[in-house]
Design goal:
- The structure holds two protein chains of two kinds.
- Helix content of chain A is 0%, strand content 59%.
- Chain A is mostly beta strands.
- Chain A is globular.
- By secondary structure, chain B is mostly beta strands.
- Chain B has no helices and eleven strands.
- The chains are: A mainly beta, B mainly beta.
């Protein structure tokens, strides 16, 4: 099992550009979570999906952020336009309903200059 | 809004010391409390605690949940430099598997 796969590992972009982060959950896991981690705020849940359906997006900071899960094996988190305050590590995690404990991907370190 | 608070925020100890990391939670429809260790990359799972008063152990690490006090502790005995990391606790809510994390405790173990 390759685990949760995120890409890219690092992303440096200029303010105003669109950024797309990608995640492939573990096969068979039906819940997927996007988290953002900063020194100031720790790990914050942005949005999570259950069976490809967004369940709670209350953590998405603003309309510049959007997430999709077109199928059980792929999700994207898009920021458009990006701002320097979006700089953080973005983690994707997946789990299987009824089995507690997430598996995290290695994260995408985003730097917006 | 669900909330998880950890203390202390950071800790520096010497190899061989014993440390206790604290976590308190306010989570609606609380189901379980989880502990993770984060080194340079992604958090890795340590323990999941669902029942109050039952200690879970893994080598030099142990953890227990107190549902009356809405808290948990993680103990590490005979600390080693490899224990240096951020330790995160998280409350698991209801049937939707939503985890709310604390900000983490940065543990530094000096040789």
């Amino acid at each position: 099992d390759a685990g949760v796969i995120q890409s890219p590992r690092h992303e440096v972009t200029e303010m105003g550009q669109e950024v797309t982060l990608r995640c492939k959950p573990i096969s068979g896991h039906n819940s997927l979570f996007w988290y953002r981690q900063t020194m100031m705020r720790g790990l914050e849940l942005l949005i999570y999906f259950n069976n490809n359906v967004p369940i709670d997006d209350s953590g998405m900071p603003e309309d510049r952020f959007s997430a999709k899960m077109p199928n059980a094996s792929f999700s994207t988190l898009k920021i458009q336009p990006s701002e320097p305050r979006d700089s953080a590590v973005y983690f994707c995690a997946s789990s299987q309903t009824g089995v507690d404990g997430y598996t995290f991907g290695s994260g995408t370190r985003l730097t917006v200059v | 809004e669900d909330k998880v608070v950890q203390s202390p925020l950071s800790l520096v100890v010497h190899e061989g010391d014993t440390v206790t990391l604290n976590c308190s939670y306010e989570v609606t429809n609380f189901r379980s409390l989880l502990w993770y260790k984060q080194e340079k990359k992604a958090p890795t799972f340590l323990f999941m605690l669902t029942s109050s008063g039952i200690e879970k152990k893994s080598g030099r690490l142990s953890s227990i949940l107190d549902k009356k006090e809405l808290s948990s502790i993680l103990n590490i005995t005979a600390t080693q430099t490899g224990d240096s990391a951020i330790y995160l606790c998280a409350g698991l809510a209801g049937a939707n598997s939503k985890l709310t994390f604390g900000k983490g405790i940065t543990l530094s173990v000096r040789p």
